[in-house]
Design brief:
TIM Barrel, 8-stranded parallel beta barrel, alpha/beta, 12 helices, 248 residues
């Protein structure tokens, strides 16, 4: 195993803060407040559509690491080109849809590796989305997927593993089964993390930080449950303390 692969697999419990805002100055204010060396900053469709690559550049200017969450899902050639450009931006990692199939995932892996070699930079982490946490058995049936949810998640995760991506995005409720099936080296990113139940939540499969980590998750994604608190900095430090990232 190469030194690069070994280094990429030394990954303890971590936190990604979702910058689910539109204004770049508002996003920058959040990045400046939070400990950039302790958390990742997730840029999703809302901020990226509004501000484009400048959102990634802003995070890097402040010493932060960007998880680009655009969930690439298209023909393999198009995803390959998109992954190359995301790698060129210097993102820490990015997401794709496992439903795009093995050929698409493999093309993404090769694109990230080759572009990083050309640039002489670290290879970004690739995470494949299985079934979004906003979906349950009812919504799966609505779109014509009749396989039980857990079976679908496990099948897509296995597809991603065989394609060479670094990890998957899955509900914390499936993390235990996935960890057992996929082994210790494959990373599990879990959205749907809540410190406490929240009214009007569109996430259907959720858990607390410690529940998710105990189940086998490596990286927690939290947005509203941090940014909507009275003191986001204190909330982040509380979560990091729980994860053992900071000394209480």
């Amino acid at each position: 195993m190469s030194d690069d692969v070994i280094q990429r697999r030394r990954f303890g419990p971590g936190l990604a803060v979702a910058l689910d805002v539109t204004d770049l100055l508002e996003a920058e204010s959040i990045v400046k407040q939070l400990p950039a060396d302790e958390v990742l900053f997730k840029v999703g469709k809302q901020l990226f559509v509004a501000q484009g690559p400048e959102a990634v550049a802003m995070i890097r200017r402040h010493g932060g690491r960007c998880l680009l969450d655009l969930k690439f899902f298209d023909i393999p050639h198009t995803v390959e080109k998109a992954v190359r450009e995301a790698t060129r931006l210097g993102v820490w990692g990015m997401t794709l849809h496992a439903l795009g199939g093995g050929e698409m995932l493999t093309a993404a892996r090769k694109a990230a590796d080759s572009m990083a070699r050309e640039m002489g930079t670290s290879v970004p982490f690739l995470f494949a989305v299985t079934i979004p946490t906003s979906m349950d058995a009812t919504t799966l049936k609505e779109v014509g997927i009749t396989t039980p949810l857990e079976v679908s998640v496990l099948h897509l995760a296995d597809l991603a593993l065989k394609a060479g991506v670094d990890g998957i995005v899955a509900s914390p409720l499936e993390a235990t089964v996935l960890r057992k099936a996929l082994g210790g080296d494959f990373l599990i990113m879990t959205p749907g993390i809540r410190l406490s139940p929240q009214p009007g939540d569109d996430q259907k499969r959720v858990a607390t930080p410690m529940e998710a980590i105990s189940a086998g998750a490596d990286l927690l994604v939290m947005g509203r449950s941090i940014l909507r608190t009275d003191d986001p900095v204190a909330t982040v430090r509380e979560v990091l303390t729980q994860l053992g990232t900071l000394v209480p």
